[in-house]
Structure formats: structure tokens, C-alpha cells
Amino acid sequence: MPATADQLTATLKKLSNASAADISTLYAVKDVIGEGRFSKVYAAVDERNGQVLALKELDMGALEEDEEALEMLEAEVFALRRAGNAPHVVRLHEVVCSSDAMWLAMERVPGRELFMVVEQRGALESGFVRHLMQQLLTALTALAELGVVHRDVKPENMMVSNEETERPHLTLIDFGYAALLGEAANGGDGPVMLEGVAGSPEYAAPEVLSWLEVEVDETGEVEGEPYDAGCDVWSVGVTTHVLLCAELPFDLPEEATEEALVAAARNVDLSFRRPQWKGEAMQPAREFVRACMTVARQERPSALQLLEHPWFAGNVPKTDGVNAQYIEMIDEAIEAEVKAA
Question: Are residues 121 and 34 in the same domain?
Fold first, then answer.
């Protein structure tokens, strides 16, 4: 049975690390740097240690009128808390309840959206993209081991700093569509597979898009294709294609129907006709995109497996994944905080 708005709000309050009658006792709140449907984001300085952060003020009154948005917020907070210090993932420092609002104190990530880099520069150089995608796969490998599925991997949700150097740095942000699997969810009794549409359709895997065309069978059950962290790998492939030639790997009309989106993903033609893809030197990149965008979910390699792809040979050190002791520590901490929820 789905949680009510009151239950979701109570759970979020249990996840708070701190409370304050006035947020200004903890943070010096500066200028607005972003705004969403249910939130405003401010530049802020932690009065306790001088750290510069991004402080998101949540409009709980409006959120309590929209249970779907409240559920997404709860999932985002759980996912970020679980991600902890995972490499190349934005950090949630704390959740604060004040007398009239709830606040998320987030890492202030330097740089700019990767999408803006492509908009300004067009198709990007292969070595630059390879370095960024290796970091993205490192992040997704860690998240998968922690039971976190991002579900909205795309250039708009990646921040890039040091972009003028040979070693640009990528940070994965915006966990608004994130979901938890298995031991990471529901006190260790979460779903093994996910259901439902999430994220941006142009970057979504075929199994995610299958939920756009679900039909109710004679028993009343809705039939779509269940999915897992492999959906994020597909999105890495689409992202890589966009970065290397500044366009999606399939043609879509401006107002694409749901049927057109599903068909485009299932029948993607990775023939790499653009001049940026030509030449023997681009062969590993072409094969990498093909591997990521394997239509059959069961045959698609994992993020960890893709870190061994020839495209990354001799690039930067590979990740060893997430320490099992770290995962256990995260489990225990979160369980202790929400056991009464």
C-alpha cells in the first residue's frame, strides 16, 4: 500500500541530520542560484566550518499536495544518503528541518553542465569524452554496488570542471528519478527489479520505455519489462554518441509520440554515418557505444564490465568498486535512522 503524504513527510523528517528554529543559525544564505517547481537553491556558507555549499529549500506545503513529487524527493534523499562518498557523485551533506521548511545541504559542484559544453563547442574530442565516460562509469559502478539506480543519466545531469585541461572532472548530479534496489530499499526488502517510466525519454533504455505502451492483461496486471541498473548503461551510450557528434543516435520528430520513442530505441541504427565517427582510431568508441546500447537488457554489459572496454585501455586507473564494509556501514546507519518510519 503506497505511503500517504503525511507518512512520506514524517520519513523525510526522520532522515534529517539537524534541526533549527532558523536556518540562518547554521548557514549564511546567499544568492539564489537555481529554482525548481518545489524548491529554490541558494549559495550558502556553513557557519560551523566555512564550507561553501548549495542549499536547497523545499516547499513542503506544495510538495504535500503532490504525493508523486514527495515520493521522488524521498527516493532522492535515500539515494544520496546511500551514495555517501561514492566517486564522481554529488554529495548530500545533511538534511535540515527548520520551523517552516526542509533544507538539503548539497555539495556546490564547480564547473558547468556537460550539455552546455556540447552546445558551445559542438562535437567533442574523443580523448576528452573517453576520460569523462570512464569517470561516469566509475560513478555508476559504485552506485550499482550500493543498489542505487540513477534513471536519468544525460549530459544535463553531469557537471564538468577543468574542462580546458587533459583531465576534466565529471560529477553526476540530480537524483530526482533515482530508485533503490534489493537490500538498499525498504529496510533490506526492496524490489530486485524496477518498473515504470522514469527520466528523459531520449536517453531512456528500451525496457524503461516499454512502460509507455503497457496494457492491462485479463488478470488486471500491467505488463512492462522490469529493469535494473542496466538502464543507466544504455544512457551512457546515448550520452557518448551525443558528446562525440553533437546529435542523438536516432532521428526523432520534435513532438515524438510514445510509439515513436519506443520504436526508435528498439530499432536504433548504429551505423555511425557522421564524419566524426570515421577512421580506425574511432573503432573502439563505436564498439563502446554499440555495447552500451545493446537492446536486449540481459545481454548488455554492466558499468563495471565496460570499464574493461578497449576504449579505456591505458587511460586512467580502473575502479575497484565499493568496499563491502562501506556498504554495510551505510546500511546500518540508514536503518537506524528510519527503523521507526
Answer: no
154 has binding-site annotation: no
Helical packing angle, 114-121 and 230-245, nearest 10°: 20
Distance of alpha carbon 222 from alpha carbon 275, whole angstroms: 43
pLDDT (tens digit per residue) in 115-150: 999 999 999 999 999 999 999 999 999 999 999 999
Residue 222 lies in a domain: yes
Could you list the residue range(s) of the whole structural domain that residue 280 is in? Answer: 112-321
Q: Name residue, grid cell 521522488.
A: 72
Whether 68 maps to a domain, the answer reads yes
Q: How far apart are CA 237 and CA 301, in angstroms?
A: 11
Which cell numbers hold the place of 205? 533504455
3-state helix, strand, coil in the chain (%, to 5): 45, 20, 40
Give 256-291 pLDDT, tens digit per residue: 888 888 899 999 999 998 899 999 999 999 999 999
* pLDDT digit string, tens, across residues 237-248: 999 999 999 999
Residue 324: per-residue pLDDT: 52
Strand, helix or coil for residue 2? coil
Q: What is the mean pLDDT of residues 230-235?
A: 99
Domain total for the chain? 2
Instruction: Name residues whose C-beta falls within 8 Å of residue 288's C-beta, 6 or more positions apart in sequence.
Output: 133, 237, 240, 306, 309, 311
**pLDDT greater than 50 at residue 176:** yes
Which amino acid is it at 136? Answer: L
pLDDT of 340 reads 46
Cell of 244: 562525440
**Domain check: are 88 and 184 in the same one?**
no
Question: What strands, in cross-sheet order, belong to the sheet with 169-172?
Answer: 112-113, 158-161, 169-172
Q: Are strands 18-20 and 92-98 parallel, antiparallel or unpaired?
A: parallel
Please list the active-site residues: 152
Band the pLDDT of 191: cuts 50, 70, 90.
confident
160: its cell numbers = 564538468
Cell digits of residue 334: 540508514
- Cα-based distances in Å from 244 to 121, 166, 282, 293: 11, 16, 10, 15
Q: Which of 108, 129, 147 is the endpoint of a domain?
A: 108
